[in-house]
Amino acid sequence: MEQRERTHFEKHSIASYMVDGKRKLMPTLMFNLLQEVAVNHADLLGVGWNYLRQFNQFWALSRMDVEILRMPEWLEQVEIFTWPKKNSFLMQPRDYQIKTLDGEILVRSTSNWVILDGEGKPQQLSAYENNLGVVEDLHAINAPASRLRTGVPCENPVFKPVVYSNIDMNHHANNSAYVTWVMDSFDNEFHDRHTLAFLSINYLQQTRADDRYAIMKQETAPNDFLCSIYSEKDLVEVCRVRTVWK
After folding, report:
1. Which letter does DSSP use for residue 236 in this model?
2. What is the DSSP pairing of strand 92-100 with strand 224-231?
3. What is the model's pLDDT at position 5?
4. Which end of the chain offers a freer environment for a tag, N or C, measured as fewer CB atoms within 10 Å?
């Protein structure tokens, strides 16, 4: 059976507001696209935002790895595929591919999602087992989403406020906001000379509108950076990100 018959896919055109100075899709907007396709698929499966809301629950992204073979370009039309994979007790893996209309794979990704209640506690997935649309033998990336085990110490932090544009409909900083913060921590000259090849992100705590954050960054190998995002509240590490550039 073909991939498009087993998975959810949507066609998107890369608009001018989605690209950077190189006319390439910005990483933040790529995350937004992947998230939107996942949200739409969950809704079609009957376990979307409106359904979970009645139980005071919502989907939250826990980890995600993204391998970028070639970033989509301005005006390029792409197909974005997504599908859930076999889940554990609390964790729901979901994979993605971004392809050209001719079938060239541009981006491949794997992620882990959890269902949280209003207090941020993970919920068992067994109640939704029949609605998750699992595809067990198809993998965008064979390995599970990475667990980044060490962070960057919080030394001499400079905190910035979480602003209006960072907040999602669950009143937390959107998944892509953290990507924006990390991308903006590299200056324009760096972006002019480098292209993002790989990104791994671990969400450790939720960040809200009344919070402030600081980014600690360390180059662990040539063009390989580890970033830790800290909340000003108790100096808690809320997110850990690895980026590899070429």
Report:
1. -
2. unpaired
3. 64
4. N
Matching residue, tokens 């990100």: 241
| Closest to 220 in 3D by CA, of 192, 240, 193 | 240
Q: Is 25 exposed, middle or buried (CB count within 10 Å of its CB: 0-12, 13-18, 19+)?
A: buried
The two three-digit tokens of residue 220, written as one number: 């662990």
Helix/strand/coil for 218: strand
What percentage of the chain's residues is helix, strand, coil (to nearest 5)? 25, 40, 40
* CB neighbour list of residue 16: distance below 8 Å, 6 or more residues apart: 74
Q: What tokens appear for 83 in the block?
A: 């599908």
Question: Which regions of the chain carry the CATH code 3.10.129.10?
Answer: 1-145, 146-246
Task: Pick 1-145's CATH classification: 3.40.50.2300, 3.30.390.10, 3.10.129.10, 3.40.630.10.
Answer: 3.10.129.10
The confidence score (pLDDT) of residue 191 equals 97
0.90 exceeded by pTM: yes
- For 146-246, CATH number out of 3.10.129.10, 3.30.9.10, 1.25.40.10, 3.40.190.10 equals 3.10.129.10
Tell me the mean pLDDT per 10 residues along the chain, length 246. Answer: 74 97 97 95 90 91 97 98 90 96 97 90 82 86 95 96 91 93 97 97 93 97 98 95 98
